[in-house]
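Technical annex, item 7. During the second reporting period the consortium partners agreed on a shared format for inverse folding records so that results from different sites could be compared directly. Each record opens with the tokenized structure and is followed by the designed sequence. A conforming record, contributed by the partner at site C, is shown below for reference.
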């Protein structure tokens, strides 16, 4: 039975007792201590058994549970709204038509819901930082955790680089490259993002909340303007042009056939990347047992609504064969968002959307730096990365992990190489980040299957889970099938005719993944865990209520907060 440190002034804690402890640890293996930060008076939770925290909360050891529910929701929601939506969505429609684009984004969206449901069940029960790789280590094989951790770190590190490349492209809308090279802006933004991530996790969460809110409002306004334009309420159609609506959509909704569908899955996958940030941030979130399910329930349908409606509006306002829709150079003028605003008669639409896209890039890069640094921190705690990466300063920040990841972000400097060019560099980084993202999602689905199998093998009841995925076993199986089909089939265009550049772009990460897993397995002689030996106790979450929470729950939020909650 779990025991908790308590005092006359302690909060009311609720836990689940009577479970079997298979790890032969003491009864007080999970202890939550309520501590006061010096100077600020704010409170945070420590969990001894969590890999992200230490027992005493000493400087240089433990991360801090300072993220609130609204931070968690925005981190997940905002992390998926970036350059993939604002810059790459038009290319998907140009390649496969608006119909197939809807199919691709809907399939990826449904898969995202499945693996988020799986992740929600695990992170609510075991809210540990760096959960993507930690669950692979705990539920299956330490070699799997090693591989997933490094793949996930690489994925978000490359995503950070893509955002820096995009930032240089965006700034060139106002300041031509001839006046200031792109690498200068990449350097400026990497310094800004690194500085933000070197503050406390609460400061990161607050910054990400407002940046993400700007992106959400921008997409919301775009949807309203788009429907008004399609309905004829605003904007004018030039003589000889097709009317917005079904007339444009029906030109060739399924352009290119079934093969074109495969070619746009990478764009769709990259656009949704970041939804799993809920699992990464759960280890630094207050009351994860309550807040993680709330964030997951709120995020999915809003993401799907944003993407489905956005693709629908673009497909009904800009013909798929428009030469500028593909936007091979990544220019803001050719962004479908900018062009819809201009067609609707909003002359400053280009400047507005350029500013919004810049915010989106900084937000996505900020989330990438956060996620990758926490994955690297967990790797260090598990002994799969140098020990100094496990150091955490007095503000709960793994400073060396942030610095190392920021260095990888310097990949964006290839934007300054004239023989590569911005558009091609972005395409390469986009392909790399999308592929590794699918591998991380595979890991989540497989870990969920192992978690449920171990949970059943140890005679535990699903009634004891704080959040149950109703899609099991269909959800994780569906995720695995979709991810495998995309990973193996998305590079088909490299074979007819054969192109070594396209082949490497599509499949270079797959042998890398195999080498990481089997290399670690043979080097460290790891073994697949028996289901009865899987540790399902260390790091378990428990609900914590205090008087302030109960009082806040009785208050009716103001109208503007209810509006923000509706959007976000």
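Designed sequence (site C submission):
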């Amino acid at each position: 039975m779990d025991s908790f440190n308590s005092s006359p002034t302690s909060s009311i804690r609720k836990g689940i007792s009577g479970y079997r402890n298979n790890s032969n640890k003491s009864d007080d293996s999970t202890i939550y201590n309520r501590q006061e930060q010096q100077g600020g008076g704010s409170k945070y939770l420590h969990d001894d058994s969590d890999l992200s925290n230490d027992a005493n909360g000493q400087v240089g050891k433990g991360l801090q549970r300072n993220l609130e529910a609204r931070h968690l929701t925005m981190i997940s929601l905002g992390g998926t709204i970036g350059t993939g939506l604002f810059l790459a969505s038009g290319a998907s429609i140009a390649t496969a038509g608006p119909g197939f684009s809807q199919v691709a984004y809907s399939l990826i969206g449904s898969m995202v819901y499945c693996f988020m449901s799986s992740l929600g069940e695990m992170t609510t029960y075991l809210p540990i930082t760096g959960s993507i790789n930690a669950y692979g280590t705990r539920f299956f094989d330490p070699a799997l955790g090693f591989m997933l951790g490094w793949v996930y770190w690489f994925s978000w590190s490359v995503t950070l680089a893509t955002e820096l490349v995009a930032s240089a492209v965006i700034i060139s809308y106002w300041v031509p490259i001839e006046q200031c090279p792109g690498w200068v802006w990449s350097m400026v933004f990497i310094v800004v993002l690194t500085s933000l991530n070197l503050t406390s996790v609460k400061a990161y969460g607050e910054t990400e909340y407002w940046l993400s809110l700007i992106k959400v409002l921008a997409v919301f306004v775009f949807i309203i303007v788009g429907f008004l334009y399609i309905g004829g309420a605003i904007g004018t159609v030039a003589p000889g042009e097709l009317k917005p609506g079904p007339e444009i959509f029906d030109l060739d909704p399924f352009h290119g056939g079934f093969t074109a569908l495969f070619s746009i899955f990478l764009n769709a996958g990259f656009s949704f990347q970041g939804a799993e940030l809920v699992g990464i941030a759960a280890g630094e979130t207050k009351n994860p047992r309550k807040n993680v399910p709330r964030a997951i329930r709120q995020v999915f349908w809003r993401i799907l609504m944003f993407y489905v409606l956005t693709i629908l509006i673009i497909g009904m306002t800009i013909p798929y064969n428009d030469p500028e829709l593909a936007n091979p150079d990544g220019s803001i003028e050719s962004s479908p968002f900018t062009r819809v605003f201009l067609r609707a008669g909003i002359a400053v639409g280009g400047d507005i959307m350029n500013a919004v896209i810049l915010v989106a890039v900084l937000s996505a890069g900020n989330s990438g730096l956060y996620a990758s640094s926490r994955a690297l921190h967990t790797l260090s705690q598990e002994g799969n990365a140098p020990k100094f990466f496990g150091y955490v300063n007095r503000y709960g920040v793994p400073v060396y992990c942030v610095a190392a990841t920021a260095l990888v972000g310097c990949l964006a400097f290839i934007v300054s190489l004239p023989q590569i060019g911005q558009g091609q560099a972005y395409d390469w980084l986009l392909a790399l980040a999308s592929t590794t993202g699918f591998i991380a999602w595979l890991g989540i689905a497989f870990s969920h299957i192992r978690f449920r199998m171990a949970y059943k093998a140890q005679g535990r009841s699903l009634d004891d889970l704080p959040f149950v995925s109703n899609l099991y076993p269909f959800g994780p199986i569906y995720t695995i099938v979709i991810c495998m089909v995309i990973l193996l089939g998305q590079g088909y265009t490299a074979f007819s005719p054969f192109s070594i550049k396209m082949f490497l772009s599509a499949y270079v990460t797959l042998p890398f993944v195999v080498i990481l897993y089997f290399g670690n397995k043979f080097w460290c002689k790891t073994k697949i865990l028996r289901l009865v030996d899987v540790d399902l106790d260390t790091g378990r979450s428990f609900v914590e209520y205090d008087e302030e929470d109960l009082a806040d729950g009785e208050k009716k939020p103001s109208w503007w907060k209810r509006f923000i909650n509706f959007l976000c």
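The chain has a mean pLDDT of 77. The chain has 21 helices and four strands. All partners now use this format for quarterly exchanges.
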